[in-house]
Amino acid sequence: MDNLSAKTKAIIAYITFVGTLIAFFINKDNKHEFTTWHIKNMFGLLLLLLIAQVTQAYVDLFFGEILWFIAFFLWAFSLVMAILDKKQAIPYFSEKFQEWFTFLD
């Protein structure tokens, strides 16, 4: 799978949690900065989605729904940016995701 482009790996990262794992392991041997950036971004979005699910179940259904829709919108935006071969950041979040998830480098 070494012949996959950085763009293809980045798109794979946005296909559920499993896609993020697949993209991480494919990118591990032949690292691309573009792919790594999108993997970190998706990992952060997955955590945001997890927070939304926990909020829905244990805190407040309405607030959890709002968080879920925000996470979904940000995921769709990020997927489109990967398809367009861009590193367009989600304001505030992408910068923090890159800073926090250095273990994914």
UniProtKB/TrEMBL annotation:
Q: Looking at the record's lineage, which domain of life comes first?
A: Bacteria
TM region(s), chain numbering: 6-27, 39-59, 65-84
Keywords, ordered alphabetically = Membrane, Transmembrane, Transmembrane helix
State the name under which the record lists this protein: DUF4870 domain-containing protein
Q: Which organism is it from?
A: Marixanthomonas spongiae
